[in-house]
Amino acid sequence: MKRKDFLKSIGIVGASVPLMAFTGKNIMEDIMDEPSNQDLLSCTATASETAGPYPTPSSVSTSTLVRTNITEGTQTGIALTLTITVLNTNNNCLAVGSGYRVDIWHCNKRGYYSAYSGQPGIDGTQNTTGQTWLRGIQYTNANGQVTFTSIYPGWYTPRATHIHVQIYDASNNLLLTTQLAFPDATNTTVNTYYATSGTNSVTNTNDMVFSDSYASELMTV
Length: 221
Fold this sequence. Notes:
Strands 1, 2, 3, 4 and 7 form a 5-stranded mixed beta sheet that branches. The chain has a 4-stranded antiparallel beta sheet with strand order 6-5-8-9, with no helix packed on it. β8 and β9 (174-181) form a beta hairpin. The two termini are 18 Å apart. The protein has helices at residues 3-9, 184-193; strands at residues 12-13, 27-31, 79-88, 94-95, 101-105, 135-139, 145-151, 162-168, 174-181. The radius of gyration is 16 Å and the shape is globular. It is mainly β. α1 packs across α2.
């Protein structure tokens, strides 16, 4: 089976990436395919990054975004399943437990985000106001875990493929804003499947966000 056909037939599951909060608490977030892999992880902090350019607008009700499947049945692409475990680096990397809010959002396979007008890109300027696809919120369970079902993101100039993440504590205080990177080799393979979007020349090492920090934000796929 060709690699691109294999990717089309399965969900892509990230393995691990650590995060750090900036409220006196250290948080690690791991995107894992097996909970047992937690034993292999260290508590290395992940860099804080910008939420832009298209964070979820405040006008969007958070209650409408609490969901596991964020495709809304309208966004197609290679299936992506994210199981996120939030761990406390100040407590021997144990899971934080229930009630922590995890927000994610990313572009579709054509490089556009929902909820914004005036977006330049491969299909010209797009207006997606009033739409909320590929945005989601989950609250951690007793094991500090949440799960999202989505698609592998596309890309847009001048960025490497990425996913935005925010972590809030149980009191709704923002602990961390960061971005997650995919391996360059996987991006190349996926972009072959997303062929009509062309080839992205931006890699993690020369990306404007990841170039100085992607080692701590890189997912294993």
